[in-house]
Amino acid sequence: MTAKMKIPFLDLVAPHLELEGELMEVCRNAFRTAGFIGGPVVEGFERDFAQFCEVKHCVGVGSGTDALRFALTAAGVQPGDSVITVPNTFIATTEAISQAGALPEFVDIDERTYNLDSEKLCKYLDTECDTDENTGRPVSRRTGRIIRAVVPVHLYGQPANMDPILEIAESYNLVVVEDACQAHGADYFSSKSRRWMKAGSMGYAAAFSFYPGKNLGACGEAGAVTTNDAEIAKKIRMIRDHGQAKKYYHDMEGYNGRLDTIQAGFLHAKLPRLASGNTKRRQNAETYQECFSAAKGIVTPFAPTWARSAYHLYVIRVKQREKLQQFLTDRGIGTGIHYPIPLHLQNAYRSLGYREGDFPVAEMTSREILSLPMFPTLTRGDVECVVQSIIDYLDAEVPESDYAGLLAQR
Ligand SMILES: *Cc1c(COP(=O)(O)O)cnc(C)c1O
To answer: Rounded distance, CA 247 to CA 32, Å?
Structure first.
């Protein structure tokens, strides 16, 4: 992101300048009490974030990756297992699966929500797995391993369709760990529970990241696990702290994966603005939607009635996305691609043996997605300017024939 960016992809400076006094106070308090690890500041944040997520427990950890890894381990994922997730996520999701000792296996996504397709999940478990006689759990024919868990990712802040996922998981004896690292404050309407539920409150446990660019971001690295299960919360408190509940009495080996006090203080100071920040993101998404209604050749985010996205990212689809991205860069408009190469085609996962064509929807979206500027202080004028630039590009650059494929998918 360069200084000449007229409209940046993300502005992380303004919100911190606004809160500078409070954030400095957090540091001052830490210096004066020498409280750097744990203590009441961490506990205070954990209590309030649990309340925000409408769960009983929150355990602060070092990062979103730690949160996923600890949640999987605490949920019983063991070396030798397999864990199902989607190919179109940040690699941290599958790194955590591998670090818990398991192998990632992928199931393709829904073309509209870009999230785990529950029908494909069901079909995979039905037709590509056998049943383990002792545990009743599915055994992947692909890997010969027991599938212990599934990790739906609430990508871009849009909740995955959890009712069917939870139902399938229950019938196949799978643990559900939500990757809510992009979905702080997103809501899902559960027809089964007949109420709105927060992302991070529906699975056995959920992982949040407070990487600076997330909807709630630290000024450094941080993450958290949320859960309604007291046992899981207790286990994660031990795992994050070298396997000890009492200093130097280790019940198991754990990790150095604590949330530090200064970051917890920053997060606590920023938490009261998360809900209003999300509201502004939703307003910006509505403005985008409104302005795009006249544009041909753009697929805007799907907004199902059962979801209120936290709009961590606002992602459109367009053919020849690189050309549009360059055009916007030249006009001083920042964009991003989340993510250009699906995980099953990454070099890091060559040994898993997947091939191009295995997950056609994730592959198609990876070629067409483009993330536009989205943050709470983005103005209506900014959004209008971004959309007008895209319309200018489409008018000038795109032959009518290129629209056909995209329109057919709408
Ligand atoms: C950010 C992110 C993570 C990892 O979080 P870190 O705090 O960077 O470790 C995991 N999954 C998804 C989907 C993310 O966006």
So the answer is: 24
Express each pLDDT in 102-111 by its tens digit: 999 999 999 9
- On whether residue 153 sits in a domain, the answer given is yes
Pairing of strands 175-179, 307-308: unpaired
Tokens 């427990």 correspond to what residue? 57
CA distances for 177 relative to 75, 287, 335, angstroms = 8, 33, 30
Q: What is the CATH number of the domain that holds 400?
A: 3.90.1150.10
Pocket test for ligand 1, best of 211, 260, 374 (most atoms within 8 A of CB): 211
The closest residue, in CA terms, to atom 7 on ligand 1 is: 64
Half-sphere exposure of 39 (CA within 13 A, CB side): 14
**Ligand 1 center to 223 CA (angstroms):** 9
Q: Do you find a cis peptide bond into 339, omega within 30 degrees of 0?
A: yes
Residue type, 45: F
Closest atom of ligand 1 to CA, residue 65: 9
- Which residues, at least 6 apart from 362, have a Cβ–Cβ distance to it below 8 Å? 86, 87, 88, 106, 108, 109, 342, 344
* Euclidean distance between CA atoms 95 and 83, whole angstroms: 11
- The domain of 99 spans 14-272
> At how many degrees (to 10) do helices 261-270 and 40-52 cross?
40
Which residues, in sequence order, are CB contacts of 217 under 8 Å at separation 6+?
12, 210, 211, 270
- For 187-232, how does the pLDDT look when each residue is reduced to its tens digit (9 = 90+)? 999 999 999 999 999 999 999 999 999 999 999 999 999 999 999 9
Query: Considering Cα of 379, then 403, then 345, then 176, what sign does the dihedral take?
Result: positive
How many separate domains does the chain show? 2
- Atom index in ligand 1 nearest the CA of residue 154 equals 13
